[in-house]
Each structure stands twice: as structure tokens, then as C-alpha cells.
Amino acid sequence: MSGRAGEGFDKLRGRALPPARSPLHRRRATYSSPGHFAADDYLVSTCGITREQAAKAAKCISHWKSFSNADAVLSFLTGPALGLSKADITLLVAKDPRILNCSVDNTLRVRVDRFRSYGFSGAQISSFVRVAPYSFRTFNIDEKLGFWMPFLGSPDKFLRIVRRNSYLVTSDLHKVVRTNIRLLQEYGLSVQEIGKMCVSNPRLLTSNPDSTRAILVRADEMGVPRNTLLFRQAVTAVAGLRPETMASKLKMMAKILGCSDAEVARMVQRNPLVLVRSRERIQRICEFLTKVVGVDTKYIQGLPTILMYSLERRLVPRHYVMKVLQEKALIRKDQSFYTMVSLSDSVFCSRYVHPHKDVLPSLADAYASACNGKIAN
Question: How far is CA 50 from CA 38, 55, 62, 147, in A?
Fold first, then answer.
């Protein structure tokens, strides 16, 4: 080695080593070169979106001069504050490529802090990014969470509803949400009841108020008293059915049960949620009840809640236990099947399975197998 070369090597060796490149930088190095700037390559190779998505995102990043800000954003999103995965980043950038233009300190960190001020943990904020990636950067946190947190009570409840209906984040609070709440209150529902109902049916809050009003009118026309659980069930059932679908369901049940429209209407008044059951499910349960259990259709009309239970996991297994006990004269021959069906599993076992373990030691295992679809011979 020449003296000059050796001197240069010694100087380099004495310098501090540059920081190790992150995986993001290493991936970028495979396609970037001096004098060449390819933002679409960055989006594909580093963020994982498709070429088509990258082409659509081009207008959002056409002003880029370097990758430095995007790198900082990705480091923050995947870092301790949020811990987003590669798949999360791909979804987020595909839905909102402008997220890569944000200032980490002036925008992203501030938004995360605002979430935390409303009781959200880092994991819950990450969950929000996954279910509403297009809103994380843009929605008004103080306006929306300032309303929803007191109304719903917890971030978990908020997230459960957003998973079902992301319009919860974007709906106009004054013109839509508050108007719908007032409509529901006019029909006798309390704020607490509205909050519970909307976990499973958030469209009642985010739909056009005219649609919500029409749902309430149709539920009222069913003849179920307001200020009751049945009315809340009627609202839930009607909210998921178009008027023509509801009419078809009523005709279908009248045909299966061989009864009049008026009789079906009275049955639905007893349990409005039977309207949300499919034709196949109702038909299979009715066939089992009439042909195997031996009850008539009047029995079903009088106890429509029996149509809400699972045929495989409840009706068939409990009928098996009933028949075994009747054959051994351990229960009356006229034992009510509905009584046995309507009990919780723990109460059912404590009354009809465990007390007979000495006489029928295999009954508990047979019942458990029946609940898994295996009926003993």
C-alpha cells in the first residue's frame, strides 16, 4: 500500500461509522440511484402498494424532492407510538397516500396525543388506523371524540361501532347524528338505550334522518308498545330490512307455518327479531319442531323466540337430553321443550344433566358431543 493510500485509509478508519441503514433505506437502495428520483418505486417497494395504486397516488407526491419526510413518517408509524405492521402501512398508504407528506412533530404526534387525551391506548389508536385509515389524518378529533366518548362511554365501544360503520367518524354531528338521536328519543328511547342499540346498528345514527324517521314509523306500525324492549327489537329488525323484504318475510313465514297474515303479525309482535332470520333457518327449525319434537305450528306461533336458537347447537342437543330422560322416566312425558331450550347452558346442565350422572354417567359427554354436531346412537 502506498504511503498516500495508507494515510487515507488510516483517516477513514479513525472516523465514526455512519449509522446503520434501516430496512426501509435498504429497500430503497435497490431502485434509487444518483440523479434519479422514483417516488412510485418507493411507494411500491417500501410501502407495499401496487403499481396501479402508486400511479393514482402520484398527484399527492409529485412535489417530493427526497424520501426523507416519508421515511420519518414511516419510522413514526411503525415505531413505539403506534407499532403499525407492514400490512397496516400498506393499507394506510393505499387509502391515504398524503399521510407521507405529514409533519411528524406538527401533525402525527399531535394527533396521537389528542387520541390519548380521550383515553385511547396506543393499541386502540392503531386499531382505529386499521378500521378507518382514510380518516386518521383528517377527521376532527376534538369535535368527533368530544361528542362520541361521553355518548358511548369508552374507546372500545367506539371502535366496535366504527368497525361496523365508519361513517360514525365522518357523519355531520349537528345535521345527522344529533337529529337522529332526537328522533329516537321522540319514540321513547333513552340516550343510554340508543347507545346500546347503535353498537349493533350504527346506521340509526349515521343515516339520513328521513331514513331513520321511516324506520321508526315502520316499527311503530308493527303495534309493539313504545318504551319496551320489544319496540327496540322492532326498530333493530326493521332497520335491517327494506319494506319489500319485510313484506316478503311475513308472507314466507305465513306459508311455512300455514297461518294467516294476522297470525304472523301477532307472532312478530311477540319477538320482532324473527324477521331477521333467513327463510332456510326458519324452515329447518320449523320442520325439526313439528316432525321430530312433535309440536304443532300454533306452538311455534305462541313462542316465536324458539326460532332464534341454533338448531345444531341448542335445539337438537337439548331434545336429545329430553328424550333420554323421558325414556328413563327421569322427567315427565309432558315436559315443556321450550323451558329446556330457553335456559342458559349452565342452568340447563345443573338441572337436567349433572343430577343424573349416577344413573346416566355418559349423559354429560353425550350432550357435549351433541352440541358439537355428534348425536350418540
Answer: 14, 9, 17, 37
134: cell is 382514510
Per-residue pLDDT tens digits for 252-279: 999 999 999 999 999 999 999 999 999 9
Q: Which residue has the higher pLDDT, 64 or 147?
A: 147
| Cell numbers linked to 169 | 367518524
Q: What is the DSSP string of 349-366?
A: HHHHTGGGTTT-TTHHHH
Distance CA 156, CA 148 (A): 12
Q: Spell out the residues 6+ positions from residue 275 whose beta carbon is closer than 8 angstroms to its own.
A: 237, 238, 241, 246, 249, 250, 268
**Angle CA 170–174–176, to nearest 5:** 60
In the structure grid, which three cell numbers stand for residue 308, read together?
Answer: 332464534
Tell whether the torsion through CA atoms of 91, 96, 97 and 103 is positive or negative. negative
| Cα 272–Cα 162–Cα 274 angle in degrees, nearest 5 | 10
Residue with cell 311475513: 250
- State how far the Cα of 286 lies from the Cα of 290, in Å rounded to an integer: 6
Its pTM surpasses 0.90: no
Residue 222: count other Cβ atoms within 10 Å of its Cβ.
19
CA distances from 297 to 6, 292, 337 (A): 100, 13, 14
Taking CA atoms, 6 is separated from 1, 17, 108, 235, 351, in Å, by 6, 18, 48, 85, 91
Cα–Cα nearest to 259, from 304, 310, 316? 304
Confirm if 284 and 311 have CB atoms less than 8 A apart: yes
